[in-house]
Structure formats: C-alpha cells, structure tokens
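Field reference: sequence -> structure
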Amino acid sequence: KIIHSEKSILYYRSGLPNALSGQKSRKAVESAVLSAQLATNNLLEVLNNQETKRISANCLMTIVYEHKVFYPDLILPLENKIKELGGSDLKIKKGKVFNFVQSILGWYNTSLLLKLLKYK
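Structure field:
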C-alpha cells in the first residue's frame, strides 16, 4: 500500500555509470515507464489540477521522445495517458541538424531515420 507523506521527495539520479536509467535495454525502458507512471499517478492523487496534469504529461513525454522508435509497444500506454491528461507542450530538444530535419519530417520520423542510419 502506498501512503502519501507530506515530506516525501521523488529523486531522479542521473550520470551514474551503471544506473538503469542510463541503459536502453527493454528491461530498462520497462522500468522507466513504470517509474514515471507511478510518480505521475501519485502526484495526481495528491494534487490533480491543470498544472500537475501538464507537468505529468511532460514527464511522460520525455520517455516517449527517448524510446518510442525502439519500443513503441511500451510507449503506447504513456501516449494514451498524455492524451487523457490533456496533452504535452514539451518540445524535443536536439541538435541543429535534427531540428532542421524534424521541421520537415516531424520528430518521430526523424528519430526513426536516425535509428535506421545508426543501427544498419
């Protein structure tokens, strides 16, 4: 059973060499998806308003941007939740070339093209 605590803090650790968050395996992405779902659900149980919905949708969208081309089946529930929350206003931030190609193909097709070029 999860109980809300006024003093609880959600930490995200990055830059750790062997951390699960830095890995791209299916298991790592499953863990990231579950972690984000639990964190956003807990937030919305405590405070469910337009701002927390937007923040939650943006949190989920970071995972969509990073992993959709590799594991679309894991990402689909996040995309559905983002729609349910009213959408995300988070824009993908990459380099100049990516941004240029994205303006023509869209972020997903650009990411897919990079995947194909990188993993021939």
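Note: The chain has a mean pLDDT of 87.
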